[in-house]
Design goal:
Oligomer: single chain
Shape: globular
CATH architecture of the largest domain: Orthogonal Bundle
Structural class: alpha+beta
CATH class of the largest domain: Mainly Alpha
Amino acid sequence: MIYSLRGTLTVKEAGLAVIECAGVGYACRTTYNTLAALGNEGGEETLYTYMQVTQDGVSLFGFYSKAELRSFQMLLGVTGVGAKAALSILSDMDPNSFALAVATSNFKQLTKARGVGQKMAQRIVLELKDKISKEKLEPAGFAPSSGGGMTALRGGAASDAVEALLVLGYSDGEAEAAVAQLDPNLSAEELIRGALKSLAKFK
């Protein structure tokens, strides 16, 4: 499995980026957001990759950030969502916006992506939220505060914010700690934005 590629960007066109490593050009299908983040052809770039093997052949997908790769992988895990739809969604919105749409059940935001109807959008939200909710919510080594702490994160806007951060690839501990330090009266959107700012300081 190819985890990442670092080399010379030789081709940059709609839906495709080619990275040359040791004389071999790797064609990666990708999103418009990744293409926008890449520099000009001839420069050195890094892409985080996902290899898909089907009856029709082998396809390689490349992403500028680990968060976008994680979002892509989660979308492929949803029933009926293929690579084309996943790339379309992540071309229409960045990982933060995608996580926010899932956390707040914003089906309409997802349907703005080409090829994504209401039924698919609803399925994406329902399946991802269900998958995330089954994960352990109290990581070892994190002690709830006397004021509510982790207990307060088990429902409402705080819970939605934690789920959105998990979609982005943050760990339970990172997500819950970042949300726990914010005002519990904030909306899910405000909690997510505040938590992302906090987490960005440590990246």
